Amino acid sequence: xxxxxxxxxxxxxxxxxxxxxxxxxxxxxxxxxxxxxxxxxxxxxxxxxxxxxxxxxxxxxxxxxxxxxxxxxxxxxxxxxxxxxxxxxxxxxxxxxxxxxxxxxxxxxxxxxxxxxxxxxxxxxxxxxxxxxxxxxxxxxxxxxxxxxxxxxxxxxxxxxxxxxxxxxxxxxxxxxxxxxxxxxxxxxxxxxxxxxxxxxxxxxxxxxxxxxxxxxxxxxxxxxxxxxxxxxxxxxxxxxxxxxxxxxxxxxxxxxxxxxxxxxxxxxxxxxxxxxxxxxxxxxxxxxxxxxxxxxxxxxxxxxxxxxxxxxxxxxxxxxxxxxxxxxxxxxxxxxxxxxxxxxxxxxxxxxxxxxx
Length: 358
Ligand code: PMP
Description:
Blueprint: E1 5-6, H1 16-24, H2 44-60, E2 67-72, H3 75-87, E3 93-98, H4 101-113, E4 115-121, E5 140-146, E6 148-149, E7 154-155, E8 167-170, E9 187-191, E10 202-207, H5 224-229, H6 239-255, H7 258-277, E11 283-285, E12 296-301, H8 304-316, E13 319-320, E14 331-334, H9 341-357
This protein binds 4'-deoxy-4'-aminopyridoxal-5'-phosphate (PMP).
């Protein structure tokens, strides 16, 4: 069967071998006579999947033991609320760097909970870059950033220090794309549907020292402590999504780990950015060069009519998901971990051929 040339921004392509492994076990997981989604979440079989997913993530990202790994639901969007509910304590100020719509949404949720401060923003530059300078308010509870801006195609290369205030990052669209120094962060969250697996599970990696901040009168399911105390098994977790997360993590290990993945991601991004930069202004990259994302390559064509023609012909040629986000338009190729180099080459060839004909 021919696989689609899937450049969707999320949910996005998963490794074929992961889907095949899931298919093999679909009706009968480990001779249980049941599918994974039919297993009790209190069964030995499921508990082993749950534990393995946590262990693999801890190994692959070198997560120290003073950090908890939590599995939640509600997407990254629920984390926009849970972060301030748990960490924006009385008298403190939630600091936010605005680098796009997702960080704006995170800020809007925090404003409903407590005091906030915009520590930096690149909004006037149409979110083409990551701000260079950050000013932190007094009494800061934390600094919140979005490590990769899925819509605008920008990505942080160097992170602010967490020496004096906790650093919180929404890593929904670039977690697992490269090695990470976890200790540079106090809380990381990511919806799974880009590099981790299918939608349905949200991963939170939290420094245990932050857990004591959560007030007891928070609703049980909105308190990080509930997940930490019960190993994310207080209630029924999204078992199928966590199983698929485990398979994706096994795939990352088989591929050789994050250094290998990072190198491949750099190679893929370079193919597309070179194609843009060598097009003599036919393709115009949205992000400033030093802020370019290796996950989402955003670009425009030199006028709107030709953009529409490009998207139409790309669709006819089998390329899926190249339309830019509805809020910004233009084009976007999302090239997460599971996109093979070969598919990126095919897209670059198509872009070159289209340019030559037009
Ligand atoms: N943050 C980022 C960086 C995203 O890309 C997205 C979704 N594309 C979200 C947050 C929202 O995630 P969810 O749909 O899981 O709530």
